[in-house]
Specification:
By secondary structure, the chain is α+β, with helices and mostly antiparallel strands. The chain has a single domain, classed as 3-Layer(aba) Sandwich (Aminopeptidase). Helices cover 21% and strands 34% of the residues. The protein has a six-stranded mixed β-sheet with strand order 1-2-3-4-5-6. A hairpin with a 2-residue loop joins strand 3 and strand 4. The radius of gyration is 14 Å and the shape is globular.
Length: 116
């Protein structure tokens, strides 16, 4: 029987890393019980975005990538998957994290997800 802490795959608009050998596979997973999205590279967690939900608003206070994987655009890949999932669930987002806020400002197609 599946537990409530089982991860839910979140849509990832770009499932490969676009750099390196091309064999790397990135996936975004929603770990609802832990209140965080995780970015996995070939099954290894390489990034995370913590969140809370209240009244259909997802607040994102923190986004990070593993220091060994910085500079590979992984935080952007993570945010792309997070926001795709938020859109699919008809929620809005309050990006408290400066990176999450900057990502949304750089990607105007996500601004309609911003909580007002």
């Amino acid at each position: 029987m599946a537990s409530s802490s089982a991860p839910s795959p979140a849509p990832d608009p770009s499932s490969d890393s676009g750099s390196g050998s091309g064999a790397e596979r990135l996936t975004v997973v929603d770990r609802r019980a832990e209140h965080r999205y995780e970015l996995h590279l070939d099954g290894e967690r390489v990034g995370l975005a913590s969140y809370s939900i209240h009244d259909d608003v997802v607040t994102i206070p923190h986004v990070e990538t593993d220091p060994a994987h910085r500079g590979k655009n992984f935080a952007a890949r993570l945010m792309g998957g997070v926001l795709a999932d938020i859109r699919n669930r008809d929620l809005t987002v309050r990006p408290i994290c400066p990176y999450a806020d900057a990502y949304m400002r750089r990607n105007p197609d996500t601004e309609n997800l911003r909580a007002r």
